[in-house]
Structure prediction request, 176 residues.
Amino acid sequence: MKQEKIVEIPLSNGKLVKGLVACIAFVAASIWILCSDQRSDNGIFSVPAIKYTIAIVGILFFGTMAVFYLLKLRDKKPGLVIDENGIIDNSGGLAAGFIPWADIRDFGTIKVMKQQFLVIEVRNPEYYINNQKSVLKKKGMLYNFNHYGSPIAISTNTLKCKLPELITLLEERNKV
Prediction:
């Protein structure tokens, strides 16, 4: 009996640090917008309610993302594990966990705001949505399902791997 190869794709600390720095910069810019007394006679910042809403949403969104990046920097588990049983996704905020090969229908890619994602089409999408403990993660997976046909959309932004390499690995493994 031949030994199956296990492929572990680690999280990229360099990419995580870049994401964290970008989030901190956006939080700082949002705080500056919130605290700035400068008035504008034109543009959306001339309406105080819009200005404050944009600043608060920026602080909340990018602050939450900064926490995510900090948690992922401390995470020592691989971002993806590919073996004879399936895929273990620990790559991002909407990580699906274990996805057995028998549940995978197809792989595809989507492009969202110049960023490409690997979409894994599964036979039982409701399982992955309902398996999320966080309401925000459930909503995120439901959004993915409604817009992209699957709750599982993996970005290589946090992985030490490029998307074409990942697709090749998955297609080769899925043939076994």
